[in-house]
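#struct-pred

JT: dropping the chains for the assembly here, can someone run the whole complex?
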Amino acid sequence: MKKFLALVLALCMVFSLCACGAKEEAADKIKVGMVTDVGGVNDKSFNQTSWEGLQALDTNKFEVKYLESKTDADYQTNINTFIDEGYDLIICVGYMLASATMEAAQANPDQKFAIIDDATCAELPNVACLMFAQEQASYLVGLVAGSVTETKTVGYVQGMVSDSMNQFGVGYIAGVLEACPEAEVLQYNANNFGDIAGGATAAKDMITKGADVIYHAAGGTGIGVINACAEEGVYAIGVDTDQSPLAPEYVITSAMKRVDTAAQDISKAVADGTYEAGIHLYDLSNGGVDLSPTRDLIPEDVLKMVEDAKAKVMSGEIVVPKLASECPTFTLAE
Amino acid sequence: MDNKKTVMQIISENRFMHILISVALGFVVGALFLVVMGLSVGDAYGRLLSSVTTLKGVSYVIVYAIPYIMTGLSVAFAFKTGVFNIGAEGQFVMGSMSACVVGILLGDLPKIILIPLCFLVAMAAGALWGIVVGLLKTKRGINEVLSMIMFNWIAFYLSNYIAGIPAIHSDGTAEATKNIADNASTLLPADMIKSLGLCPTANWGILVAIVAMLIVWFIIDKTTLGYKLKAVGANKFAAEYGGINVNGSILTALAISGALAGLGGALQLMGMGSRISVFSSQEGFGFAGIVVALMGCSNPFGVLAAGLFYGALTYGGSKLNLEGVPTQLISVIVGTVVFFIAISVIFERLKYAKKAPKKVKEGKENK
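RK: done, full complex below.
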């Protein structure tokens, strides 16, 4: 018995010795902390892209760390960890963190925050809201879809009906109809961002009805859409990040939001002392949204047409609609 | 050999010692992983220790431990009756969602009525989830493990469905429910949290958990009901022969077990979450309860300690990324601990093997 107590005590001592490691930190580095949503840092989407963007920052000037949230209740804890550690900027990834961010920002008015994809904190003097012109990116992929469809039927799966989500669909439909005025756009609201099986079912249903290109703005549900398209041999269009790796032969393009650029920009702004709260809009003109860089599947002439349209959107010649009310063909509703 | 106890005997005879060693081994294996990955063991474990030893850290640990203690009690209680409650996950979800619905819709009620009401509704919902499975088992002989896993998913999707109902769903853009009314919150007063320097989600849910623990202990050790349940757990047929209503006992155990998990869901919601998000994956409070029950030897006081330990690992572990250490280290440690506790069966076998050496070859004994 004694032997064992001795063993356990010895282990305790070893561990407590381990705990004594002193740390040195360069005081002049800008410390940027990123809090993921429950998707985790390897979600092949926003969290991952933001983190990759932050990692690409100059390590001599920046110290970047992330904290992963396992449940909805972890957001606040993780934000507070960064506050306690004295981070210069806390980047919250995704609108799910909006209420936790707002609470923390109100309680700590001197702490700088940035939140991706949410504008509800825009009024606060210490939160930068990094927003993306998703209707513009969707318009471009809509042009691609309208140009490559042979059946003149394309599909669209959305994760939830809300003003900000509807921008995807409205922009997409505008693009499709611009490229192919007689095209029919099949639409489906999955009301879920994590239902892979449901996404696959919806996509297969559309393919049966003749769709040969399907765009999704539905997170995890969209993975099912892409899988189904690959299975049935039709084109899929990804969203948010370059989703080509999911099905390289079938994901023709993706409506990409450069969250990595946004995360870098706001970190640099803190370093330069030019940080500003409020809405920061990332659109085509500042490279915040675009087609994904993988463009092997898009025909040359279509690509040229898209580039022309892009220039027109940037110059203001084309104004892409955003609201469901501006687009009579958009049929999704709660 | 005869007079001196062997290493194996000491371990197998002393549960507490066994668990302590399993935990230590868990940390050793975790350290090995760190070394292989080329990370500093000192930094990682130092961060774990330093984040849970401040007053704020301790308050975080307690807050994180509350749901684990409750699901741990739930699993441990069912286990006493020989039922493996893998359904605590679903019961937890049902409890938190029903407390959430009450907390939103009846938010105008005064605190003194609303909070107990939320607790009761959550316990009822959890108990219901346990009873249905119990009925399937006792009336139709359906294995409870299977139906519980399925009921976990029913609860999962039901919760997501309810979160989508307009009266419950958040007014903002979040994919979550509205926040529950302040009157349904178990948070400590804000000034108190600030002046004491506690964590922002400090709440008095732990008191409820401790009361629940005492009640569980009382039922198991001090009542006829507890005696019956234990008898059924020890040997169903002997219990039946002894005149105990086996099916009734299983139903009672599952109902109480479900109620405990459901109450855990309510405590987590009312103290910490204040809303429920649309799940994309199971949050795992119920499954963690199995680990906690195992570490606590299914003993109520053990479960309290194990729950606090698990809470400390979860909270301390969430900070590991600051040291560049993947949080999965915690899963490695917990997994190893569970592994070593689970193989205690082997130690037991070896002990019995020694008493009946004819059945087992000599060589297998003491290594």
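JT: nice. Residues 362-367 of chain B have pLDDT under 50 and may be disordered. Residues 111-140 of chain B form the longest helix (30 residues).
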